[in-house]
Amino acid sequence: MAEENDFTVAGPLETPVVESEVQSLPHAYSCTLTPELVAKAREELQEKPEWRLRDVQALRDMVLKDYPNLRTRLDDGFLLRFLRARKFDYDKALQLLVNYHASRRSWPEVFHNLRPSTIKHVLDSGFLTVLPHPDPDGRLVLCLRPGKWRPSDYPFLDTIRAIYLTLEKLIQPEETQVNGLVILADYNGVGLAQASQLGPFLAKKVVGILQDGFPIRIKAVNIINEPRIFIGIFAIIKPFLKEKMAQRFILHGSDLNSLYQRIPSGILPEEYGGAAGKLNTADWSTTLLNSEEEFVVEFCQPDPLEGAALTDSMLFEGEPSEAQCDESYRGVRSQLYYCY
């Protein structure tokens, strides 16, 4: 973990938050979880309702002590996201919060001016949507269709921006914070044109943010209709996945019965043999686009620490050089061509 004052990050707040101001703020948090989800959070996340605000205050105090220049939201609801994502381990929650902000400063191409209107073309292409109904465990299903992306239409980073905004919206409800979410990735139509855009340097950044820099619990990644070339794609991604996350990738191929064992057909669209009607991408697009103003507040404020020195956080420690990545990518690229 970085030493005090080594790490300065700008976030949505325009003025510093001082300890006296934070402590004087009323606890406006009001739990929206059902009794069943309260019990689930207690069992799976070690969240004790009677200690909840005490735990939030402990994390808030750690932020103020260890990272006094970290411009971040410190309200109860926001900090609870990080505590739940790390099962109320204070140190891990703090590091996740630091990583969350470090990713923004370390990858400006993704996070600069990040608002739904700037990725409308990705939404219009049908690249992603969220299914209207959760699974039996209460987990929302994020549906990705990489084959809808054409490199000649827009850059790969735009798809990352669209995924990140979607996750930001999905993590707002407490139900998702407790239940987590499931990913359904349909690789139909993915070929060498798409696969060749992803190298180790880019893969590490994407995996690093989603795995270690965002307060969400990804419970499963279901891959369907994967072509032979997916062997090469996964070879690029897998070295950066923690073992627990790698085990959550399930490859179904074209076997929909295998998929139904993970995601019931009753909540799947007709395109995947389900009973939930045609796949609708328009509703989720509308949801994001209607949230434009909240994302402007979150991501598009002037940076009061512009030009300040920023050391790497643990999230990006040991990141390979471009030369190393080029060398590594030569070997992986040969696999892509072989698979193709």
From TrEMBL:
Superkingdom of the organism of origin: Eukaryota
Any Pfam family the entry gives: CRAL_TRIO
Q: Which Gene Ontology MF annotations are present?
A: phosphatidylinositol bisphosphate binding
**Boundaries of each CRAL-TRIO domain copy?**
115-280
Record's GO cellular component terms = membrane
Q: Tell me the InterPro entries matching this sequence.
A: CRAL-TRIO_dom, CRAL-TRIO_dom_sf, CRAL/TRIO_N_dom, CRAL/TRIO_N_dom_sf
Coiled-coil residues are none
Gene3D superfamilies reported in the protein's UniProt record: Alpha-tocopherol transfer (1.20.5.1200), CRAL-TRIO lipid binding domain (3.40.525.10), N-terminal domain of phosphatidylinositol transfer protein sec14p (1.10.8.20)
Q: What is this protein called?
A: CRAL-TRIO domain-containing protein
Q: Which organism does this record belong to?
A: Acipenser oxyrinchus oxyrinchus
Q: What is the lineage of its organism?
A: Eukaryota, Metazoa, Chordata, Craniata, Vertebrata
